[in-house]
Amino acid sequence: MLHELCQPLTALHCRLEIGELQGTPAAYQEAVREGLRECGRLLRGVSAMRELVRSALER
User: pTM here?
Assistant: First the structure.
């Protein structure tokens, strides 16, 4: 599960760095768009982990 969280976090970091390195408005826009997509993946992963913890606590 932690691996599933690290993948989008690493991708988010890389996308933002690439946008910064390229330094164009289009690169920044693409970095934000991709960053938002990766944030969605992170949120889904956290939600799945929350559900697992909740289920384990109910047992």
Answer: 0.82
